[in-house]
Amino acid sequence: METQPHSCEQPHAIQRAVDLALEHFAREGFNCAESVLYGVMAAFGLPGGDAILRAATPFGGGIGRAGCVCGALSGAIMALGLHCGRTTPDAAQRNQAYARAERVWRRFVERAGGEDCRDINTLGFSHPDHKEFCARFVAIAAELAAEEIAPGKEWSAEDHRVQSTRSGAGITAPGPSATPGPAQPQDSG
Question: Which long-range contacts (CB under 8 A, 24 or more apart) does 157-163 make?
Answer without folding.
Answer: 157/99, 157/182, 160/99, 160/102, 160/103, 163/103, 163/106
